[in-house]
Design a protein that fits this description.
Number of helices: 15
Strand content: under 5%
CATH class of the largest domain: Mainly Alpha
CATH architecture of the largest domain: Orthogonal Bundle
Order of helices and strands: HHHHHHHHHHHHHHH
C-alpha cells in the first residue's frame, strides 16, 4: 500500500512539473528572444539559449522603446510609470471605496440597505463595453481626456471588492462590536482601529487582485490616452507590434513584454501569503 502511495505521489509530482514547464516555457521563449538581435529571432529555428544582447535590448526598451512604433513610440520607463500610476490609483480607489461602502451597508442599519447592496451587485452584470462610451462622454465633458484622473477615476468602484468586504464584516462576531461600543469607540474609531486590522488579509488579497486588474487594462487607456506620454505598457506594446510596412523589432518588444510582466509577478510573490489567507479567510 505504501509503495502504491509513493508511486501515486511521484506521478503527481511529475504531472505538476510537466504542467509548470508548459506554463513557463512561453515566458522562457520570450526572455530568450529578448536577448538576441532581430536577425537571430527571425531565423529558423530560433535559438533557445539566451544571447548576448540582454543589456543592449533592455537598455533600449527602458530608455527609448521601439523606433518602429513611429508617432506612437514611448520609452519603456514612461509606459511603466503610467501603468504603475494607473494600477496603484485604481487599487487604492477600489479598496477604500469598497471598504467604506461595505462598512455602511453592514453597520449602519437603514431602510433599503439590502436593496442598495443588490443594486451594487447588479453592476457586475454590466460589461465594460456597454458603459464605456457613456463614461468616455462624461470624461470628455469634464475635460479629463489625456489625464491620469481620466485613466483612474472611472475604474475605482468595485462591486466585487464591496461584496468581499461585506462578507468579511458579517463574519465578525457581534460581541466585538458591542465591546467596542461599551469602550466608547465611535464609528470612525471602530472602523480604523478594529475593522481595518481584522480584515487586513482581505485587504491584502484585494490589493493583489485589483492591482493586476489595473495593470492589465488595455481598452480604457487606449481610448483615454491619445498621446504617447500617457500610454500604458500594454498600449505601447500593441503600438510596437502594429508597425506598418516594417519588420517589428521583436527583440525590443520581447524585452518590453518581460518588463511589463515583472510588477504583477513581484506583487504576487511579495504578498502571496496574505493573498492566500485573505481568500481562504484563515484568520477567521
Amino acid at each position: 500500500m505504501a509503495v502504491e502511495n509513493k508511486g501515486g505521489i511521484l506521478l503527481l509530482h511529475v504531472l505538476c512539473i510537466i504542467g509548470v514547464a508548459l506554463i513557463l516555457f512561453p515566458m522562457y521563449f520570450v526572455f530568450v528572444a529578448s536577448t538576441h538581435n532581430v536577425q537571430a529571432i527571425m531565423q529558423k529555428p530560433m535559438p533557445l539559449i539566451p544571447g548576448t544582447q540582454f543589456i543592449v535590448n533592455y537598455a533600449r526598451a527602458i530608455a527609448s522603446g521601439s523606433r518602429m512604433a513611429g508617432a506612437f513610440s514611448a520609452s519603456g520607463a514612461s509606459m511603466l510609470k503610467n501603468s504603475a500610476i494607473m494600477a496603484v490609483g485604481i487599487t487604492l480607489g477600489k479598496v477604500v471605496i469598497a471598504f467604506l461602502a461595505a462598512y455602511a451597508l453592514v453597520y449602519f442599519r437603514f431602510r433599503g440597505s439590502t436593496l442598495f447592496f443588490w443594486m451594487v451587485i447588479i453592476t457586475l452584470m454590466l460589461p465594460v463595453e456597454i458603459r464605456i462610451l457613456p463614461t468616455y462622454k462624461i470624461m470628455a465633458d469634464l475635460k479629463l481626456l489625456d489625464t491620469y484622473a481620466g485613466l483612474i477615476l472611472p475604474l475605482i468602484a468595485s462591486a466585487t471588492a464591496t461584496f468581499f468586504y461585506r462578507q468579511s464584516f458579517l463574519s465578525i462576531p457581534d460581541e466585538l462590536t458591542e465591546a467596542a461600543m461599551i469602550d466608547g469607540a465611535g464609528p470612525l474609531r471602530f472602523m480604523v482601529f478594529i475593522l481595518a486590522p481584522v480584515t487586513r488579509t482581505t485587504t491584502a488579497a484585494l490589493v493583489v487582485v485589483q492591482f493586476i486588474y489595473g495593470w492589465n487594462q488595455y481598452l480604457w487607456p487606449l481610448l483615454m490616452a491619445s498621446t504617447p506620454d500617457l500610454h500604458t505598457i500594454l498600449v505601447g506594446l500593441k503600438a510596437m507590434i502594429a508597425a506598418e510596412e516594417q519588420l517589428p523589432e521583436w527583440n525590443i518588444i520581447m524585452a518590453t513584454t518581460i518588463l511589463a510582466a515583472l510588477p504583477p509577478v513581484a506583487v504576487i510573490v511579495l504578498m502571496q501569503e496574505q493573498f492566500i489567507e485573505g481568500m481562504t479567510e484563515k484568520e477567521k
